[in-house]
Amino acid sequence: MQTKFGIILAGALAIGVVLAAGCKSGVAEEEYLNKKRWEKAEAEKAALQADLDRLRLERLQALADLEKTREETRRTLEERERQWAAEADSREKEIRRLKKALADTLGAATIRGNGVAVPMAGDVLFDSGKTFIKKEGKRVLQKLQGKIKEVLTAGGFEVEYIRIDGHTDTDPIKHARTYKDNWMLGAARANAVRAYLKEVGGWDGYKMYIASYAYTEPATSGDTKAAKAANRRVEIFIVPAPKSRQP
Prior knowledge:
The protein has a five-stranded mixed β-sheet. The protein is of the alpha+beta class. The N and C termini lie far apart (131 Å). It is built from five helices and five strands; from the N terminus they run αββααβαβαβ. A hairpin with a 2-residue loop joins strand 1 (110-112) and strand 2 (115-121). Helices cover 63% and strands 14% of the residues. Helix 1 packs across helix 3 (135-154) and helix 3 (135-154) crosses helix 4. The protein has a domain at 92-245: CATH 3.30.1330.60.
């Protein structure tokens, strides 16, 4: 009887030991899994923090780059404004200097916009309604061109361009087959002067253009013969380059 009880007790103890060992093993495994979960969470947290720090640094760098660009742009604009102001002042001085030099030599010169206009009476250059330059007109043009060249050379002027402007009176065109209106007549006369000056030579280094103002910019007001004669003219319009852009 005692032997049987001892066997049962021993078996029970053995089962208890096994159960205890099993419980202990289960707890250890849970602790291990929890540790792994915590380590993974910490790693993810560290990675997120690293990304956040990187993004923060990138943002700060972007802001710094933007501020640098703004400052560079501001300095560039200020420098350009300074250059433009200096160029405008230099151009104005050159225009006044050229006007005085031409007026002293030719007796007539007018500042207009960004250049100086030298007028020539249309009746000296052309017959009424015509665009062929008269002999007298050619002599006047040749002499005028030479004097202007002397002024430009002596004064050390650099020229951006020379424009030949044709002006007419308000009288309608009598022979509309040739020239439809005063705009076409003004342009044809300006081009005739340009072509002759090119033929004479001496201005080959200058850019030359033509323009027609017809009757829109009269030299004087009024409807008298004298006023109309004054308005029929061709002007040599000279635009000097500012000193700041000259070599």
